[in-house]
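Quick one - first record:
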Amino acid sequence: MTTTSTPIPAPRSSGGPTIVPTVSRNRRTTRGNTELYGWLFMRVSGVVLVALIFGHLFVNLVQGEGINAIDFGFVAGKWSSPFWQTWDLLMLWLAMIHGTNGVRTIINDYAERDGTRMVLKLALYTAFVVVVVLGTLVIFTFDPCPANSPADLLPSFCTA
C-alpha cells in the first residue's frame, strides 16, 4: 500500500497546497547565542542566589539572637569583614543582574512597539546602574565610626 502526502496549508492562507521552503541548518540567527546565554545565566545565578540568600538568612536570623539583634552595630560588625562584604556584594550584583535579565525578557515579550521597548529598557538599565553603583559604594565605604562625629551619636563600640 502506498501513501501519498498532501501538504497542510499554512495558517491564514487560501487553503491551497503550499510549498514549504527548505531552511539551511547552518544559518545563523540575528541574535546569535545571546538568548541562550541569558537563559543559562538565569538558571545558574538562580541556584547560586538561593545558596547566598539562605546563608544570609541563616547568619542574620538563626545563628544569633534573631531579628532583634539586627541593628546598626550588627551590620557594622558584619561589614568589617571582607568575607561578608564580598558575600553581600555578590548577592547584590547577582540579584540585580538576574532580576534585570528577567524584566528585560518580559519587556521583549510584551512591549509591542519598538519605541516603548526602548524606553522601558532604558529605564530598566538606568535603575540597574543606580542601584548597583550605590549598593557597591555603601558596602565598601561604610564607616560605622566616622571621624569628628558627636560621641552621643556613635554606636557603643566606637571610640570617640
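second record:
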Amino acid sequence: MPAHDDVKAGKADFLMAFGETARARRAALGLTQRQLDARMGYRGKFSGGVERGARNLTLDNLYLLAAALDTDPRDLLSD
C-alpha cells in the first residue's frame, strides 16, 4: 500500500488535472465561471474551486458539471 503522503500527493495531482480538463471544456464552450455555475444551479464560485483543484466533487456534482459542460461525466475523468 502506498504511503499516506504519496496518496495525498496523488489526490492533489488528480484534482488539479480534473480542474484543468473542466477549465478547457468551459473555455471551449465560451463560458465564464459564473455562467457555468448558473448552468449548474449555483450562485457562488463553485466552478472556480473545481478548476483550481480546491474542491472535491461528489458524484452528484460531477454529473451536474458534465451536464453544464454538455459532455459525459466519463469524458471529464478520462483526460
